[in-house]
Design a protein that fits this description.
single chain, 719 residues, alpha/beta, Rossmann fold, Beta-Lactamase, Alpha-Beta Plaits, 4 domains, five-stranded parallel β-sheet, 26 helices, 45% helix, 22% strand
Length: 719
Amino acid sequence: MSAVLQPQQVKASGCRILVVDDDQRMAESLQKLLLMHGHDVDTVFGGRAALHQLSQDNYDLVLLDLAMPDLDGHTVLRHMNQHGSNALCIVVSGERSFNDVSQALRNGAYDYLRKPFATDELLTTVNNAANKKKLQDSHDVVQQKLIRSEQLHRFMVEHSPDIIFVLDAGGNFSFLNQKIEGLLGYSSESLLGEPFSSIVHPDSREKAIYFLDAMHAPGESERSIDLVLCGRSALSRQRHFELTVSRIDENSELARHSEHRYEIYGTARDISEQVEAEEFINFQAYHDILTRLPNRSLFKDRLSVAITQAQRNNEKLAVMFIDLDRFKLINDSLGHTMGDRLLQAVSQRLLKCVRKGDTLSRFGGDEFTLLLPDIAHDDAASQVAEKILDAIKSPFMIADHEIYIGASIGIAVYPDAGDNLEALIKNADIAMYRIKNSGKNGSILFNAEMNGSVNRRHALEQDLRRALQNNEMEICYQPLVNTESTALHGVEALIRWNHPRYGRLSPAEFIPIAEDNRLIIDIDRQTLRDACLHVKALHDAGHPGLKLSVNLSPVMVERDDFVDHVAATLEITGFPSDCLQLEITEGLLLNDRSDIVEKLESLTRMGLSLAIDDFGTGFSSLSYLQKFPISTLKIDRSFVQKLHQKNDDACIVGAIVSMAQGLRLQIVAEGVEHVSQFNYLRSLGCDVVQGYLFGAPGTMEELLGRYPGLVSSGTAAPE
């Protein structure tokens, strides 16, 4: 039963040994013997002392006596087993019964030596136990390393930011880590045995199958591809993944010892944020971020392609240049945030007017361009333009503001208006400026004659600043006549430009240019000052009380120093404030700005009166007539000129006059050219008229020549 001494056996290196015996002399004898052979030996006397020592320290071997009075060796063995002691126990006991030996071995004893024992036998048994203990410890260390390694690998697999998977020869899942649940909502167990293609988006499925089939080709070991994978739920958003797959060597341990046929190992990395960022960058490069419409670059790309197709198929296409009327006024008065929201609302209305294959873009600022490929004829483009004009004429409700705008639309048709990209865009822009300069809110097709107008506009832009410096601007005066007495009520100051090459120009041609480059401020200031000086000279010549009316641009009125400048002009010129009337446009009042109200009220407190010019052509509202300190309405000439036709315009004029009388406002009618018009207006109760019937605008000298007996109280107008 005990180990037999083998002389050739290598002696084990020293180990830690605990000798347990109730016989002190025996325990010390064993200690001395083992110490002589290089072991580290402790001794305790009795079973209880043994248990205490084992709880305090670790030992490789325990030499244990069975028969001990306080606690026998069998109890110590059982305690060692129950508490997971990894020390090997050699029983050294005088007990010889088979039952004691059997019980000791069942309780975990390594070997059993009977007392008295031979020294060599004891040393051989100890040496063998020590060697086994070292082998056992080494094995435990390796096992622990394997367990830790497996735990580490499992942790890395399960906590990987990527989906890790293994496919069998049929392309079905054999393994999946838990990441797929967090990214796509599938449990790894539910996909085992399912084909990889089952989680691929239908649009990418054919590409995925081709990609995996290619892994079977000779020489293919690793490949990558970007795919769109679908979540388990219909509500789960699709995600973009970068797939990297490797073929598993059929001779590898994984392939040989697996119950499945592992063939492909792969990882799927979620690159959705990266793809979305790239898509957003690309979107920014070719779209306007505010309206999300194509930008200028994308519009030009699509136009270039459309021109090529039109050339190949002998088709027509149209390019529209759309500029919003009154947008600058709204943007300046309500702020850029409201302006941005208006542009977004306009873009949505415009989109409803175009076909699926058309391209609407925001070209910049308040300008839009529209590409209409494959149109049958020029009228088709004009019809779309009219549809757009109808769509945007309805008011826009933005943040409790009712906003009205119009549009000026220029149309260039390929190939008549140009056979290349630059020509079509330029000529559509030229046509747009033609309609804007002619009164806005309409559309027109480009024709060759318009090129001359563009060259003229460019020249005027260059010459305008010089014109102010060279005093080329001239004030003309048109009489304002009282309808009851036909006496001269006053004059309206109108600016004209005596251009050295083009002759005398009307405000309709150069005022829009002046407003665009802000020179209108200098023009308005100069006009107001000089007109006050001219009429004040008439006052001083014995004609006091003659009224002066001056039209001011919204750009001038919106300036912070507007009121101060008017006050300073009156003081410098000595002109009486109660004889001055300033004319402003309806558009200036539409947006209900508190600062504009305050400015106008400041002017009326100074004694000035305020008139709305061209009343009825804008988007009139009774609310602003009550809110703003307006004293006069000027009926636009477009209504007056049609009075003799007995149409709806006559009703409109009558309604305006009745409304003004109800609001206790004075009425001035513009564009009176016929006696019948004058008589009709006088019958309605219109207060003052002006027009060619009483004289065209002219210089102060011409006015004095027409009214040689000029007085403020009753000079009759010429017949």
